[in-house]
Specification:
Elements: E1 12-13, H1 16-28, E2 33-38, H2 44-56, E3 59-64, H3 84-94, E4 99-101, H4 105-108, H5 127-130, H6 134-149, E5 153-157, H7 161-173, E6 179-183, H8 203-208, H9 211-224, H10 229-243, E7 247-255, E8 269-277, E9 280-287
Parallel strand pairs: 1-4, 2-3, 2-5, 3-4, 5-6
Antiparallel strand pairs: 7-8, 8-9
Helix pairs in contact: 6-7, 9-10
The structure holds pantoate (PAF).
Pantoate binds near residues 38, 39 and 160.
């Protein structure tokens, strides 16, 4: 296939046909396949996912696609960091990814593509409320990737916790044969969740950013000790503003499986938040208890 550029620094497929040719060879050899979907700008968080994928499968395919349908009209699609050569070099250095699938927009959305996948309910809450259409874009592209690769396992970070639940639901609803694996959030030494969007933060904003995780941890400890979840969520929002965040979309304690309000302490809980530091929107979440 012409799109294979050899194994230096890593094999790349740019078309679905090329991807399937490679997957076909792997499958003939009896390999178990893992997929790690990414939008590139790879950092330690992504590399953690790839390393984890390699413990679950014989062959790891990493997809790199900045998906236009998950960006709102006023979001950062055009300026989202893109550096395929650097991403390929990082994967090659890591040594446990076997194929980079880097399709064009036309390849992923042939002829404009009319079909969309949405996950109503789960996809309408929280991020879905503040970023209308976001989860339809995510579910559509992840659904396509899962159908293209048909991996045994696909690996997603818990950093995008609601996304992980939406993807699990879509795999279940579409009877896809893939196990959806969540991996705990990779963090900087000061607790800030690793994210490609951290690159947008000024030095002053970067110094404030760890407050997000610290405040979420305090809320999680408080509710685990029996304090009122709504009051602690309100406290968390006020604390973020006091720490220097420009605005807060939500700090909320939810059922970790359904994202409904967390009312039953016997059920697993999750504290989730989204807030803006300058113009950069950060999200994070931590488990209760
Ligand atoms: O988490 C991401 O990077 C993206 O939402 C994903 C899952 C690769 C879909 O574009």
């Amino acid at each position: 296939m012409t799109e294979f550029v050899g194994t230096e620094p890593i094999a790349i497929a740019r078309s679905v046909a090329g991807l399937r040719a490679c997957l076909g060879d792997w499958r003939c050899g009896g390999a178990r396949v893992a997929l790690v979907p990414t939008m590139g700008a790879l950092h330690e968080g992504h590399l953690t996912l790839v390393r984890h994928a390699a413990t679950l499968a014989d062959r790891v395919c990493v997809s790199l696609f900045v998906n236009p349908t998950q960006f709102g009209p006023n979001e950062d699609y055009t300026i989202y960091p893109r550096n395929e050569a650097a991403d390929a070099a990082k994967l090659a250095e890591l040594g446990c990814a076997h194929l980079l699938f880097a399709p064009s927009v036309e390849e992923m959305y042939p002829d404009g593509a009319m079909t969309r996948i949405s996950v109503p309910g789960l996809g309408d809450l929280l991020e879905g409320e503040f970023r209308p259409g976001f989860f339809t874009g995510v579910a559509t592209v992840v659904g396509k990737l899962l159908v293209q690769v048909l991996p045994d396992v696909a690996v997603f970070g818990e950093k995008d916790y609601q996304q992980l639940l939406v993807v699990r639901r879509l795999a279940l609803d579409l009877c896809l044969p893939t196990v959806i694996e969540g991996v705990p959030t990779a963090r900087e030494a000061d607790g800030l969740a690793r994210s490609s969007r951290n690159a947008y933060l000024s030095a002053e904003e970067r110094a404030i950013a760890p407050a997000l995780n610290q405040i979420l941890q305090t809320v999680a400890r408080g509710v685990a000790a029996g304090s009122d979840a709504i009051e602690l969520g309100d406290w968390g929002e006020a604390e973020l503003l006091r720490a220097g965040f420009a605005s807060v979309d939500y700090v909320t304690v939810r059922d970790a499986e359904t994202l409904a309000s967390w009312q039953d302490p016997a059920r697993p809980g999750r504290v989730l938040a989204a807030a803006r530091l300058g113009t950069t929107r950060l999200i994070d979440n931590v488990p209760v208890g």
